[in-house]
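Hello forum,

I keep getting stuck at the same step: I have a sequence, I want structure tokens, and every attempt I make locally crashes halfway through. Rather than fight my setup again tonight, could one of you with a working pipeline run this one for me? It's a single chain of 126 residues.
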Amino acid sequence: MLKGEESRRFIRVLLDIPCEFSLKDNLKEKNEGKIIELSISSIFLEAKKEMHVGENLKFYIKLPNELHCEFFGQVARKVGKIEYGIKFDEIDESTRNKLGDFIIKYLEEQNRVVKLFMQVKRSEEK
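Reply #2:
Ran it on my machine without issues. Output:
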């Protein structure tokens, strides 16, 4: 088990989707970032904005299936200069369910693509 993995209870998916976020004390100032990992309890974010562990943020995201979500999170860790682990601290059940549905559909699509790849590979080997 990798360091930090033991505390992860939820499935995570690797993504590359833009998002906007604001500091909770200054919701008018929007910043841009990129979600590179998503679960129903947290995200891993790339952002040029300097942030510190413990800061509270509001996120605005639009997932590829036109699903719009807003939620609050807190910087739980900083990795390098521009990567942040964000844990959700204010997210309603409906939004969490939408994220869960998105993750399931995303994983199903990845599985479908892998199966197709394997079929093509097997047919080329014959």
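The chain has a mean pLDDT of 88. If your local run keeps crashing, start a new thread with the error log.
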